[in-house]
Amino acid sequence: xxxxxxxxxxxxxxxxxxxxxxxxxxxxxxxxxxxxxxxxxxxxxxxxxxxxxxxxxxxxxxxxxxxxxxxxxxxxxxxxxxxxxxxxxxxxxxxxxxxxxxxxxxxxxxxxxxxxxxxxxxxxxxxxxxxxxxxxxxxxxxxxxxxxxxxxxxxxxxxxxxxxxxxxxxxxxxxxxxxxxxxxxxxxxx
Length: 190
Known about the structure:
Radius of gyration: 24 Å
Largest sheet: 4 strands, antiparallel
Number of strands: 4
Strand order of the largest sheet: 1-2-3-4
Strand content: 25-35%
Order of helices and strands: HHHEEEEHH
Structural class: alpha+beta
Distance between the termini: 66 Å
């Protein structure tokens, strides 16, 4: 057999082995997600699905209510994005740990605030005690292009240390708005 063909087959085999490895990891992640639900939760979900199929007439009424509610939520989201200038382009979450009283999820967010792109990664620990749910942000990592202003990199470092997402988004919105004004002003004088 020709050596070139043999190498091409070897490369194809390696690519297939890599694809198998990635698919196996995805399968394990999905299987791990599904094991977080107890038998009781699965039965409850099945019963609710059975109840939905039996109530076909109610479904049509609730479907129009759901559409109206969805349209209202979309209008609210559009208003908030316009008001704050923050537009999320992607979001993913992965459950790391789940117990009856505690859930740990890893979130990844990406977006733009006016013209400034940002990426966030953090873990959210949700603890439930009685009827109350509390959430704590940890392992916050923020990626922004802060070459223009050293104060931005200092602000990002402080925010990562304290894990305060609300302050981050408020400050980012204000900074990005004024950054846009400065950019337009400097373009005017060029």
